[in-house]
Structures are given as C-alpha cells and as structure tokens.
Design goal:
Helices cover 33% and strands 25% of the residues. It is of the alpha+beta class and 264 residues long. It is globular, with a radius of gyration of 23 Å.
Length: 264
C-alpha cells in the first residue's frame, strides 16, 4: 500500500473512531441524566477512553502496520479469446476497478430518463471531453440514453454520494420500465438529491466500436459542472463507485451493496 492509500485508510479509521467517541460521550451523558447504574456508566467511560487512546495511536503512526495490506502478484496468464463473455467481464471488472458509478440523465419530449453507467472516462481536460460506452440489449435494442442523446444531444452525468441510499437508488434505476426511472425512486428528476457533482454535457461525436462490438462510443463535451463550493479536494470527491461486477461501494475495503437489477 502506498502512502496515499495509507493516508486515506487512516482518514476513514479516524473518522469512525471519532464518531464512536462522540456516541459514547452522548450515551454517558444520557445514562448519567437518567441515573443509570454506576457500573454500566463506568464501562462506557472505559470504552470511550480506550477509543480515544486508539485514536491517538493512529495519529502517531503507531498502528500503521495494521493498515498495510499485502499485495498479490500475478502468477498466471489467460488468453482473452479463450474466455466466455461472463468470464471476460469479471476479469476486466476486477482489474480496471473501482470505477465511478454515474447516473446519466437524458430526456425525450419532456420525459425524464436516468440510467446507471460505469463505462465513463475523462479523455481530455482541454477541451473538457468525456467518453461513454452505450451498449445495446441482447435483443439488439438501443438504450433510451443513446436514443435521447441522438435526439437532442444533451445529458447530465451525476456522481452520487457514497451512501447506502444512493447505492440502492442507483441499483433501482437499472430496473426495466416503460415509465420514467424516476418513478421508481423517492425523488424527482432531473437531478438526484444525493448527487455530489453534476456534469452538464453535450454530445459532440458518436462512433462505432471496432471488432464487431455492439456498443457505441459517445464523446461528450462538459459544458458546465455543479460542484460543492470551494477548491476541489486533493484526494478527490467521495463518490459512489462500482468495484468488480456488481458491488457498489465508496472503496474496495468499505461497505458494499450488491446490485440486483440488471438490464437484459
């Protein structure tokens, strides 16, 4: 694990321990106010004091060796043409991962559409260009996202907060429906209430992928961004990602939500 990874792990652990301390303090105050048994209160005080001590040791770097993880090494080579589609998908998703989970919002004649995508990447800063791969269904049907982009050329790329609620909503938007996907959520479009950042984009190019791939590679120009006020954080925004095939998570070592709704 490099120094940046150690730093991020320490940040997460310290935030967790600080919340434990705050929870213990509030619990102690409530129990004292109610006149609870002194022995029970003493146990909470010991817990609080021990957690404070652990937090100080994290700050001093005493427990850095607990955070380090052993790296695995490649010891076999597989030929991609020898794998079936599912196996190829699993290996590619396991290696080029995690990837930001992006809700792509489009519209057609006033009807709002939203769909989760992970095949999204920044390819140019000046001009600000993003590419997105839009596949077809197994029956050869084009995605509504692609059809809407072709019709009016506009979309929003929405990066969601790294929360369970955001993960569940992103999962739900994969549910096949003839209605707007927003009808499946406890919110109204076009901007999700848990969006951390929104990139307003315009389609500038539409290309087929080579070698018989059915997906279209769409190039988007970022026209504007909705972001938290202030400078961009050096460590990046905390956003929902996909790790591996179906796990929605803020990081590979954190909590995860397994996506269950899949488009055919």
């Amino acid at each position: 694990m490099n120094q940046g990874e150690v730093k991020m792990s320490k940040i997460v652990i310290k935030e967790f321990l600080q919340r434990c301390i705050e929870y213990a303090d509030s619990s102690i105050a409530r129990k004292q106010e109610r006149g609870d048994d002194a022995a029970i209160i003493a146990e909470w005080i010991v817990y609080r004091d021990y957690t404070q001590h652990a937090l100080k040791e994290i700050d001093r770097g005493v427990l850095n060796h607990w955070i380090d993880r052993k790296a695995t090494k490649p010891d076999m080579e597989i030929r991609m043409e020898e794998l079936d589609h599912a196996s190829r998908s699993k290996w590619l998703s396991a290696t080029l991962s995690p990837r930001p989970l992006v809700l792509v919002s489009t519209r057609d004649k006033g009807k709002e559409n939203i769909a989760p995508m992970t095949s999204v990447s920044v390819v140019s800063n000046t001009p600000p260009l993003v590419v997105i791969s839009l596949s077809q269904t197994r029956a050869g049907q084009l995605r509504d996202t692609y059809i809407n982009l072709k019709a009016n050329g506009e979309c929003e790329l929405q990066l969601l907060a790294a929360t369970k609620k955001a993960a569940i909503d992103a999962d739900l938007t994969s549910t096949p429906t003839v209605e707007s996907e927003w009808s499946l959520l406890d919110s109204e479009g076009p901007i999700h209430p848990l969006a951390v950042a929104v990139l307003r984009c315009r389609m500038v190019e539409d290309n087929p992928l080579p070698e018989g791939a059915v997906a279209r590679l769409v190039v988007l120009r970022v026209e504007s961004m909705l972001v938290p006020s202030g400078l961009p954080p050096e460590e990046g925004l905390s956003i929902l990602c996909q790790h591996g095939m179906d796990r929605l998570t803020p990081s590979p070592q954190d909590w995860g939500h397994i996506a269950t709704y899949h488009r055919s």
